## 1
Amino acid sequence: MLSKRLKKNDWCISYDEKVTVPGRINFTTAHELGHYLLHRQQRDTFQCGQVQIIEYGSPESKRIESQANTFASYLLMPRNDFDTQIAGHELSFELLGHCADRYETSLTATALKWLEFTAEAAMLVVADHDEFICWSYCSRAARRIGAYISPGQEVPASVQEHMRSNALAVSEPRRVAAGVWHSTEEAVESVIVSDQFEQNIFLIRFPLALMVDHAEEPETDTFTVFEENGQGLNWKK
Ligand SMILES: [Zn+2]
């Protein structure tokens, strides 16, 4: 949490000492620093839940929590350095793990950062050990093909079956037919079983979606939209 100390007239960041994962401590501290820089005029106390990176309460708290997360992610994982680390490599949990070590962030936070800027169609799916989806997060290209999976859904039956029969094997990325993670797209699935957090973390990539996306749907950026809208108003000289 971040709180104003009235007597000393300063601000203090504190975190639960029971949290032993360095990545979480760093992210939490950077997140609170973000509140200090961005939001300290609005409140005297910011109490932030542990690793609720995706879920928030009201629209206003959603907005400020999301801003603090964005701040923290860029502070800890500078975009230009991230690009250098992954350039020329096939994306995998191993590569994300290398970046997580480098930035001392959690694997989840690192994967979310990558999904934020990648041109690939990919998503992260976190499920509990009872095989129910806790949350999923899609890259922009994955959102375009409707790859979202809502919380509470079950992990696809064939994936559960595969995991049961390969429980002890180190999971290599495997190709999964259309109809499993997406109705019409083949996927490449990697999974990490986290006993510590009792979660299965899936990295799902849709390698064929990327090509279709480029061919059929050229990206429109904010500048283009502005320019197009401006033409009718004679803004361009
Ligand atoms: Zn917060």
## 2
Amino acid sequence: MLSTYGWSDALQHDFAPHAAHGLAPARVIVQQRGRYRLATETGDVEGRLLGRFAHEAADGGYPVAGDWVAIARKGDHGMIAAVLPRRTAFTRKAAGSSQTLQVVAANVDVALLATSLNADLNLRRIERYLAMTYESGAEPVVLLTKADACADPAPLIAAVEAVAFGVPVLAVSAATGEGLAALAAYLAPGRTAVLLGSSGVGKSTLVNALANAARMATQAIREDDAHGRHTTTHRELILLPSGALILDTPGMREIALSDAEVGVAIVFAEDTEQIETLAAQCRFSDCRHGNEPGCAVREALADGRLDADRWRSFQKLQRELAHAERRDDPIARETERRRWAAIHKAARARTRSKREIDD
Ligand SMILES: Nc1nc2c(ncn2[C@@H]2O[C@H](COP(=O)(O)OP(=O)(O)OP(=O)(O)O)[C@@H](O)[C@H]2O)c(=O)[nH]1
Ligand SMILES: [Mg+2]
Ligand SMILES: [Zn+2]
């Protein structure tokens, strides 16, 4: 029964100490405020936090959608006693706090980053989603939704491919079924996908199309500005006929994205340090790491010490910064400068505190 939810030998191994205490495994399929719905070996039950657990759980220690938990049965309920180690986790900063990271989805294998083809394509937003995904440990796929509403998606797909190095970019339509077969390749039995994207891009409609059933409520977007109405308000893991699991989520607000911006910089902060160290070893101090002899960056790329994807991301970031500097609009340039200064400052602070922990 639980194997349909992705239960594996590795999880069985992690679960052994809990089994010794007579607890049973379960997966969190719905999480809404302090309430949980759990999939167990014998069907779905309502979950509650065991008093002791609720008391002791540290920040980020509370179960979230996608988590595997150890439960004690109490009548109709599953009392959650522990959360199993997470293989991947999507985090964001908790509201009103600059420090606490809140886990919003756990044990996701593939992140479907959804953006609508009928609205303005925001490449920077896609980059932020990608950064969030890389931080989580899941594998990204970019979905350009509502392909039926776009006469010529090809140039938009190309623009997205240019920022999403090596990441699959699929144009899909829940209305016509276009692209759903290609998407199915990422939705293998027992794999868990999460749908992330702004309100109104059609996440829930896509879930319903994949499920062949009206599992999630959907709602028309606002006519005046094409914004969504924040229809989905909880996270729900849905078992698809294909055997894959898909987690529908509430539309992300920009505020969550600006948190992920810090994530972009953190991904880059470590790379920047490594690359700058390498560049200092190039034979020529003005080496552009192209065909110059004695280029330490190219050597590191060749022998695998420097990851090619990360090198491309780094180059892209440099281009973006250079572009911002070249811009002749002084206000835009200043805004950009401040944005990056803040990002780098936050990244440095995070890297520092991480080092202190590592030490
Ligand atoms: N033309 C077209 N419209 C679509 C498609 N998919 C979704 N829509 C419409 O887009 C609107 C919003 O869809 P939802 O599925 O509710 O969007 P959502 O991303 O789940 O939004 P939130 O739950 O608010 O985050 C609805 O009116 C859908 O009918 C599509 O493939 N083509
Ligand atoms: Mg929805
Ligand atoms: Zn070089």
